[in-house]
């Protein structure tokens, strides 16, 4: 069997006001807005994609902004933390930057020997910045507002909160190709590689926690990378054989997707690496204007009339503090 999961492809979450979301992720965190489009299943709402300069799989965080949405509840059956990788030594830069922005956060802690800074985005979504000696500079937005040595270098990992352990663990290790690398208390770290950023996911076993509810500030699904359409079909075949009620292949334009629920209730997706975000606008213009799939171009003016305007933050370079 030649099919392989290569790590995290993207994470998709729900937020409230789109401008607040853009200011936080493209402004404060310094990611690039790589696509400004609509939710293909609900075209009167945006779908915003952030990533490194080109939206490399493994760097992509996406949002469905629903202005006025109520808060969700973090709990089991959910991806409860989205973790980005930063270089060792970047923690002081971020504590200063987040403090200056008036964000509240806990003092950095250590997890599996790496330093970690944890905070919430404006909708209450849990974000972590985790240091790693194995950050990959090609995963950072080199031309972004944050100096490269401090910039976010794609995903580090994510935390899956689960009521139980065994069935999710079996899916990860026996089907998707993860290995259990280490454990700290009720946190179990799995990786499809050697634990380097982007290949890693933590399962947090929390049987006493309430179950989560997806709304504002919560992750809708987590997508895993597969190399191409042929491998995706292999995954679809195997998941179906195992009794998972997977969706058919969906054309998401920038990648192709299948969706299924893991045994603990979290929505998983397997997404292809190609074709990527340059398929419908030049790389130097990614995210600069509303891009629609061909079948929605004929209603562009109606959509533009209901979508709230959004502006990219002015990219003032951040002064480097010695
Ligand atoms: Zn997705």
Please describe what this structure looks like.
By secondary structure, the chain is α+β, with helices and mostly antiparallel strands. The chain has one domain: 2,3-Dihydroxybiphenyl 1,2-Dioxygenase, domain 1, CATH 3.10.180. Helices cover 17% and strands 32% of the residues. The protein contains six helices and 16 strands. The strands form two sheets. An eight-stranded mixed beta sheet has the order 2-3-4-1-13-16-15-14. It has an eight-stranded mixed beta sheet with strand order 6-7-8-5-9-12-11-10, with helices on one face. Strand 10 and strand 11 form a beta hairpin. Zinc ion binds next to strand 1 and strand 13. The site of zinc ion has 6 residues, from strand 1 and strand 13.
- Supply the CATH superfamily name: 2,3-Dihydroxybiphenyl 1,2-Dioxygenase, domain 1
How many individual helices?
6
**Percentage beta strand:** 25-35%
Instruction: State the CATH class.
Output: Alpha Beta
The shape, in one word, is: globular
Helix content: 10-25%
**SSE string:** EHEEEEHEEEEHEEEEHEEEHH
Give the integer mean of the pLDDT values: 96
Radius of gyration: 19 Å
Structural class: alpha+beta
Give the distance, in angstroms, between the N- and C-terminal Cα atoms: 51 Å
Strand tally: 16
Largest sheet: 8 strands, mixed
Total domain count? 1
Attached small molecules: zinc ion
CATH fold naming: 2,3-Dihydroxybiphenyl 1,2-Dioxygenase, domain 1
Low-confidence stretches: 316-322
CATH architecture term? Roll
Widest sheet: strand order?
2-3-4-1-13-16-15-14
